[in-house]
């Protein structure tokens, strides 16, 4: 069975919500924390509803709507989201008040909106979609789990159109706490220089990206989602390499069939070593594109990566800002997106061009 | 009542609404009025507690008290204990 | 490919017992788990009864064979997941392709709350090891690492239906031959965050809750974990499985962020979808383990949806939350184990404290523990915030 990407939508630190060619106007930053460029959310959400929504809910609803619009669909049969951190802002608001007010005089809004399924629930509510609804919250596999669920549901035939997305937000609290773990650069770095940075640490990012998947090809569709796989805590790089070979094999292809490798390099010299090893072993002469210098590092960044890979296939070209190694391929038939999150969560997403 | 309206707007994060937009007798919860819902009612219960030291323990009392700004104001003046 | 998905075993830890057998004994003895708070520290200690797991973290850590300072959510999860695995008789876990799919809503919030008290005073305050497992997925990984599960990991958070949705996803993983075995269910520890959150909604009962009773005034929170072991046809042939997961349904109420629609639209759709998937007629269901939280709104919505789907002949029904409290992300897992065991052994669990018939519906919950029923099919309902409604059906072979 083929699974088609019939529409996509993305809210990110790039101008991805306004349409036009991929990275037509590149946003460059020199900071360790990237924020999404907010579209005018009122085009999708009325004032009465928007007043309670935190940023992650708004960006999720916006990206979901953009994805449905581009698929020419008003309501999907199922909504599946992935978010590692969930609704951090409302969690932080409620937690802070609870501590500061010694558990007295708390209000319900932040608590209600703090649950991880808020975004999927709000999308269902706004679209009046009574179909299947699920939310995965498994760190660097959150978006990948959502994709697997969607693929299995399309395979069993219980839904025709599924809206699948990944999103996470940064808040002041989360950034402050994550910074204490030492995962970000100590000093601001230019985003276009990030991937060649000689130091440990990366930059924080956020965003929401949705795909509308279907087992029938839509009018604007250019790309199939051929396969998804995850690998948890590989013991060494050989296990990753072996996993990729098997993953490609199970999708009837070999490294030679891959026209473009898209990797989750994040400018952390320690973490990027794995991509070097994999490229050297399996894809020594392959062109490579990257995305985390555009959106920042976060556990569901592969949703942005998949959104971008779909656009690369649709446009059959790779903007210079996204290229990391080699020259853009003349024809982009197959893209392998390889990402790892903190060295423990490795994921592999295979996309193919359809005429 | 204008203070109360401002407090309601702040508590409920009513965007693009000013105290002048809310009529004293305008129903707060019906579609023709402000269109508030059950979550707002819970927020208003906390508002009364925070600003007026009035505790409502049964949420079913909400619809009566929160019918309009005037009914809220009347309930407040009838139930407010003297505060330091 | 596996035609069917089998339940090979189950484990539960809850406010009425540290393992499945002791939970069953509490049902038999009619001993619900709600008491004044003993382990959770909260200003509401004297106000709201809760169904805590009756053990401190040191005792749980011993049972779990894990460090004492990790989240209670992980300790509970480990204890129930290991019990589930051992009950399956499958032996060495490393010889199978195994997935661990666990639902939870609080993650490591119990530790994050302590961290925040220090952190809010000073941004460099609080020990980082208290927040390192804050994420829901991190709880799943602590347990997966202990169990030795690496093939597939997933964490689901759909509020009170998280555990039920874990079984659905697990079922798909087996049917599509991604794995041979899935340990699926959910876990949640009591935290100040959830206690205060539910308090803002004014739906916590200050007495022991009375699900499906006309005089009900709210729910009691509980904590715990529950997991089933699900296996494919080929593995089921080698053991004595309890029953099958024959159907499931997932629908969204799409009515309100937290409240159920008055007529229980999402509840109805989820139960109907589960029946359709298992190819059953309503009258073939012998018993329903209700969502049955005890709030005005939840119970009337579920009751009306059951009325619409099952009238005029109703299966036996009861809410085990009248014993365990509402264990949130764990409830779908805990009640899946109770329901699977109900099919296997013909058990009906009692609905504690039921006295007054609800005026909206024509059926009433069972109040006595009973065995010896010959159930072919049992349904388990889990409905939650965000409109997330799920229903599971367990069937005899």
TrEMBL record, chain A:
GO cellular component: cytosol
Pfam family, one: ketoacyl-synt
Domain Beta-ketoacyl synthase-like N-terminal: 44-214
Name under which the protein is recorded: Beta-ketoacyl synthase
Keywords, ordered alphabetically: Transferase
Highest taxon of the lineage: Bacteria
Family matches, as InterPro entries: Beta-ketoacyl_synthase, Ketoacyl_synth_N, Thiolase-like
Organism: Chitinophaga silvatica
One GO MF term attached to the UniProt entry: 3-oxoacyl-[acyl-carrier-protein] synthase activity
BP-aspect Gene Ontology terms: fatty acid biosynthetic process
TrEMBL record, chain C:
Record domain Ketosynthase family 3 (KS3): where: 1-396
Domain of life according to the entry: Bacteria
Pfam families from the UniProt entry: ketoacyl-synt, Ketoacyl-synt_C
GO molecular function, one term: 3-oxoacyl-[acyl-carrier-protein] synthase activity
GO biological process, any: fatty acid biosynthetic process
Entry-linked Gene3D superfamilies: 3.40.47.10
Signal peptide segment: none
UniProt entry tagged with the keyword Transferase: yes
GO CC, any one term: cytosol
Key words, A-Z: Transferase
Family: Belongs to the thiolase-like superfamily. Beta-ketoacyl-ACP synthases family.
PANTHER family: BETA-KETOACYL SYNTHASE, POLYKETIDE SYNTHASE-RELATED
Protein name listed in UniProt: Beta-ketoacyl-[acyl-carrier-protein] synthase family protein
Organism encoding this protein: Chitinophaga silvatica
Lineage start: Bacteria, Pseudomonadati, Bacteroidota, Chitinophagia, Chitinophagales
């Amino acid at each position: 069975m083929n699974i088609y990407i019939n529409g996509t939508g993305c809210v990110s630190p790039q101008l991805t919500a306004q349409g036009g060619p991929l990275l037509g106007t590149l946003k460059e930053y020199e900071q360790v924390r990237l924020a999404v460029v907010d579209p005018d959310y009122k085009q999708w959400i009325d004032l009465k509803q928007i007043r309670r929504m935190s940023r992650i809910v708004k960006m999720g609803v916006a990206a979901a709507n953009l994805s449905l619009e581009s698929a020419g669909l008003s309501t999907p049969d199922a909504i599946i989201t992935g978010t590692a951190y969930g609704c951090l802002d409302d969690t932080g608001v409620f937690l802070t008040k609870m501590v500061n007010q010694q558990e007295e005089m708390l209000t319900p809004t932040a608590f209600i909106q703090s649950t991880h399924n808020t975004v999927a629930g709000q999308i269902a509510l706004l679209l009046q979609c009574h179909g299947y609804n699920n939310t995965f919250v498994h760190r660097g596999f959150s978006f990948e789990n959502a994709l697997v669920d969607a693929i299995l549901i399309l395979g069993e035939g219980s839904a025709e159109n599924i809206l699948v997305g990944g999103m996470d937000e940064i808040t002041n609290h989360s950034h402050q706490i994550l910074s204490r773990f030492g995962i970000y650069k100590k000093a601001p770095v230019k985003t276009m220089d990030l991937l060649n940075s000689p130091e440990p640490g990366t930059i924080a990012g956020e965003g929401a990206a949705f795909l509308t998947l279907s087992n029938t090809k839509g009018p604007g569709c250019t790309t199939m989602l051929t396969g998804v796989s995850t690998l948890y805590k590989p013991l060494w790089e050989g296990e990753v390499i072996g996993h990729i070979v098997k993953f490609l094999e199970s999708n009837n292809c070999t490294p030679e069939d891959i026209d473009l490798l898209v990797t989750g390099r994040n400018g952390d010299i320690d973490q990027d070593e794995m991509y070097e090893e994999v490229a050297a072993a399996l894809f020594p002469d392959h062109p490579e594109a990257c995305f985390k210098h555009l959106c920042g590092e976060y556990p569901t960044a592969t949703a942005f990566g998949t959104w971008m890979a779909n656009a690369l296939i649709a446009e059959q070209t790779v903007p210079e800002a996204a290229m990391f190694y080699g020259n853009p391929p003349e024809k982009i038939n197959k893209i392998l997106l390889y990402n790892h999150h903190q060295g423990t969560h490795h994921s592999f997403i295979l996309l193919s061009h359809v005429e | 009542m204008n203070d109360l309206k401002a407090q309601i707007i702040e508590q409920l994060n009513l965007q693009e609404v000013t105290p002048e937009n809310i009529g004293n007798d305008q129903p707060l919860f019906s579609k023709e009025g402000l269109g508030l819902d059950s979550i707002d009612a819970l927020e208003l219960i906390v508002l009364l507690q925070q600003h007026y030291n009035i505790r409502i323990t049964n949420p079913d009392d909400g619809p009566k008290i929160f019918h309009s700004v005037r009914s809220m104001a009347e309930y407040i003046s009838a139930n407010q204990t003297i505060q330091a | 490919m596996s035609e069917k998905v089998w339940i090979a075993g189950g484990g539960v830890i809850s406010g009425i017992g540290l393992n499945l057998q002791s939970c069953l004994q509490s049902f038999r003895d009619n001993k619900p788990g709600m008491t004044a708070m003993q382990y959770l520290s909260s200003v509401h200690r004297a106000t709201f009864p809760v169904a805590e797991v009756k053990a401190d973290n040191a005792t749980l850590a011993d049972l779990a064979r894990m460090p004492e300072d990790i989240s209670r959510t992980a300790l509970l999860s480990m204890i129930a997941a290991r019990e589930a695995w051992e009950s399956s008789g499958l032996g060495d876990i490393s010889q199978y392709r195994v997935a661990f799919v666990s639902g939870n809503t609080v993650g490591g919030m119990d530790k994050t709350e302590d961290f925040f008290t220090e952190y809010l005073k000073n941004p460099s305050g609080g020990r980082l090891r208290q927040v390192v497992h804050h994420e829901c997925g991190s709880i799943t990984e602590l347990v997966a690492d202990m169990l030795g599960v690496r093939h597939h990991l997933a964490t689901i958070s759909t509020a009170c239906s998280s555990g039920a949705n874990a079984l659905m996803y697990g079922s798909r993983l087996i049917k599509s031959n991604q794995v041979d075995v899935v340990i699926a269910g959910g876990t949640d520890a009591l935290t100040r965050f959830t206690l205060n959150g539910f308090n803002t909604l004014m739906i916590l009962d200050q007495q022991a809750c009375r699900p499906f009773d006309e005089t009900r005034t709210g729910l009691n929170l509980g904590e715990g974990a529950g997991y089933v072991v699900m296996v494919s046809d080929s593995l089921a042939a080698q053991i004595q499985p309890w029953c099958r997961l024959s159907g499931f349904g997932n629908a969204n109420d799409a009515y309100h962020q937290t409240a159920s629609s008055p007529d229980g639209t999402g509840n109805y759709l989820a139960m109907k979808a589960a029946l359709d998937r298992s190819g059953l007629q309503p009258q073939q269901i012998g018993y329903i383990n209700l969502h049955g939280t005890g709030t005005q709104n939840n119970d009337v919505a579920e009751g009306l949806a059951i009325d619409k789907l099952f009238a005029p002949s109703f299966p036996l029904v009861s809410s085990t939350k009248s014993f365990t409290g509402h264990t949130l992300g764990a409830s779908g897992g805990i009640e899946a184990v109770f329901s699977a065991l109900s099919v296997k052994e013909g058990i009906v669990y009692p609905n504690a404290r039921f006295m007054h018939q609800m005026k909206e519906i024509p059926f009433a919950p069972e109040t006595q523990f009973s065995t010896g029923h010959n159930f072919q099919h049992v349904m388990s309902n889990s409905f939650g915030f965000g409109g997330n409604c799920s229903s599971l059906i367990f069937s005899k072979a």
